[in-house]
Amino acid sequence: IGNSCLLPFFVCFLRESVTTKATALNGYYIPKDTCVFINQWQVNHDEKLWKDPETFNPERFLSADGTKVNKEDGEKVLAFGLGKRRCIGENIARWQVFLFLTTLLQQLEFSVCEGGSVDMTPLYGLSLKHKRCEHFQARQRFPTKGRS
Ligand code: HEM
């Protein structure tokens, strides 16, 4: 590890995943029993890796002609951590997210209500959230006859 992606550290008071002794990394002193996380936000917004990192642009993960997923770029997104303590649920999570999203997108059509807008300003926390949005609507793509 040992690169700037690790900084700044989140210090928390969980007893798991903590430093077993005091140490120094890239000039930062880290006391014993400090819970350390990778700063995934920094990696996923690194301008050296991503063009306009702040822009929501799912097409960035497609090949130039838009017909294939660009796996190489997809693998640069850091979602499941790194190293010894990386997520052990990654495979389950990837399948869950895939099934959940594809089922929703297949069955429902999402849109912003007339006159509404979506504010993607992130709310900071251990994980980023968006602001509550009340201007979304979801309509069934294939309404089932006879079902209320
Ligand atoms: C989209 C869903 C998920 C995301 C984004 C995610 C992300 C992460 C990340 C970033 C870490 C590392 C935290 C660190 O740096 O210490 C982690 C650890 C972990 N995750 Fe996940 N995770 C997800 C789903 C799951 C699922 C479904 C399971 C279990 C079935 C799971 C089990 C764990 C466990 C047990 C650890 C701790 C590993 C260790 O400390 O050795 N995660 N996860």
UniProtKB/TrEMBL annotation:
<keyword id="KW-0492">Microsome</keyword>
<dbReference type="InterPro" id="IPR001128">
    <property type="entry name" value="Cyt_P450"/>
</dbReference>
<keyword id="KW-0503">Monooxygenase</keyword>
<dbReference type="GO" id="GO:0004508">
    <property type="term" value="F:steroid 17-alpha-monooxygenase activity"/>
</dbReference>
<dbReference type="InterPro" id="IPR017972">
    <property type="entry name" value="Cyt_P450_CS"/>
</dbReference>
<dbReference type="GO" id="GO:0042448">
    <property type="term" value="P:progesterone metabolic process"/>
</dbReference>
<dbReference type="InterPro" id="IPR002401">
    <property type="entry name" value="Cyt_P450_E_grp-I"/>
</dbReference>
<keyword id="KW-0256">Endoplasmic reticulum</keyword>
<keyword id="KW-0560">Oxidoreductase</keyword>
<comment type="similarity">
    <text>Belongs to the cytochrome P450 family.</text>
</comment>
<dbReference type="GO" id="GO:0005506">
    <property type="term" value="F:iron ion binding"/>
</dbReference>
<feature type="binding site" description="axial binding residue">
    <location>
        <position position="87"/>
    </location>
    <ligand>
        <name>heme</name>
    </ligand>
</feature>
<dbReference type="GO" id="GO:0005789">
    <property type="term" value="C:endoplasmic reticulum membrane"/>
</dbReference>
<dbReference type="Pfam" id="PF00067">
    <property type="entry name" value="p450"/>
</dbReference>
<protein>
    <recommendedName>
        <fullName>unspecific monooxygenase</fullName>
        <ecNumber>1.14.14.1</ecNumber>
    </recommendedName>
</protein>
<keyword id="KW-0408">Iron</keyword>
<dbReference type="GO" id="GO:0042446">
    <property type="term" value="P:hormone biosynthetic process"/>
</dbReference>
<dbReference type="GO" id="GO:0020037">
    <property type="term" value="F:heme binding"/>
</dbReference>
<dbReference type="InterPro" id="IPR036396">
    <property type="entry name" value="Cyt_P450_sf"/>
</dbReference>
<keyword id="KW-0479">Metal-binding</keyword>
<keyword id="KW-0349">Heme</keyword>
